[in-house]
Design a protein that fits this description.
0% helix; globular; single chain
Length: 124
């Protein structure tokens, strides 16, 4: 069983930065990802990582501004967000998958087995 706990959200002005963290417990996590959901919108994949090789995959909205990383020793996932825009405001969720698969499919929310409760990011 995997448990995920996000932290690091908050309020920031446009152009600012935040770093989200996701502490994971459990075993055999193959992929981890960050998703976000704004009010009235579907949950969308932002960035994902294959825990084995460290390969990463980004949505177009995140490329060049967001960086996903993982500290395997601490079992913690990060999302560094720079150049934040008001449209980045959303609840951000951490997700984990324990099965292998193609990273090209990893932005699909249905792909994941476990979810955290989310951390709110507000950009004004």
């Amino acid at each position: 069983h995997v448990q995920l706990v996000e932290s690091g959200g908050g309020s920031v002005q446009a152009g600012g930065s935040l770093r989200l963290s996701c502490a994971a417990s459990g075993y055999s996590i193959r992929f981890m990802g960050w998703f976000r959901q704004a009010p009235g919108k579907e949950r969308e994949g932002i960035a994902t990582i294959y825990t084995g090789a460290g390969s990463t995959y980004y949505a177009d909205s995140a490329k060049g501004r967001f960086t996903i990383s993982r500290d395997n020793a601490r079992n913690t996932l990060y999302l560094q967000m720079n150049g934040l825009k008001p449209e980045d405001s959303a609840m951000y969720y951490c997700a984990a998958r324990t099965r292998y698969g193609l990273i090209a499919n990893s932005l699909n929310r249905a792909w994941y087995d476990y979810w955290g409760h989310g951390t709110q990011v507000t950009v004004s």
